[in-house]
Amino acid sequence: MEQMVMRTDFDNMKLIRRGKVRDVYDIEDNLLIVVTDRVSAFDVVLPNGIPGKGRVLNMISEYWFSQMKDIVENHIIATDPDQYPEAARKHKAVLEGRSMLVKKAEPLPVECIVRGYLSGSGWKEYKSSGTVCGIKLPAGLVDSSRLDEPVFTPSTKAEEGHDINIGFEEMARIVGKETAEQASNIALKVYTNAREMAEKKGIIIADTKMEFGIFDNKLIIIDELLTPDSSRFWSAQDYAPGRPQDSFDKQIVRDYLLTLDWDKTYPGPELPQEIVDKTAARYNAILDILTK
After folding, report:
1. Are residues 30 and 114 in the same domain?
2. 65-103 pLDDT tens trace
3. What sign does the dihedral 277-7-91-220 (CA atoms) show?
4. What is the CATH number of the domain that holds 146?
5. pLDDT tens-place string over residues 22-52
6. 188: containing domain
7. 193 and 75 in a common domain
């Protein structure tokens, strides 16, 4: 089993942010994003991670950024450590396969979510009000129903705790109407194209979360794209509306944690090896299916 990278500390580069999964460094007017093997559940980063998870997320993002470059410019400058600035090249052994040198864009303070199927918090809201993020949907839908048209449902970004769903009007107030409309149109187009591509490989993309930023006065897509951490991937062969679906992500971790007497606060419980191995296999499976 490969080495687990839970955190990075490079003494010759300035760490500017340590997220739940990504460590971000400032380097020569650009950013270096390192995707670790940390895993979070219920907004808590767990003590042990999933070996190789960071590489999987990084490689899937790189694949989708490339596939969508005709729709929207992305933030990637390089993914090969040999092409990084000298300060980063010396850490090639850690950075190989799990990092990106990217443009220093100004992130929009909202998440751009596209839902093509009724699941998760969307299903919960629909059951009580017939809407998803305030958008009225047809009557008679069930858990995991495919929507006739994907819906754009932005949310706030929360450094801690849960993001909060907002309407398009609120997003427009925050970022400006023109930017909101552009982000919405691009997000829907990226999702629709990705969904069609994935379906040919036997995968349903139920929903996904994207991030955009401004670089040189242009809206570009940043962070990660269509990974198991930002999307719900289901097997088309096993898909059956009317019930929750089995996802190619960390659902195995969530399901295990729900069997414990844990109040979903720090420190989280350590995952047993069996759960770690099963989760790693799920991440590697979706990488193989999507990118080959």
Report:
1. no
2. 999 999 999 999 999 999 999 999 999 999 999 999 999
3. positive
4. 3.30.470.20
5. 999 999 999 999 999 999 999 899 999 999 9
6. 107-253
7. no
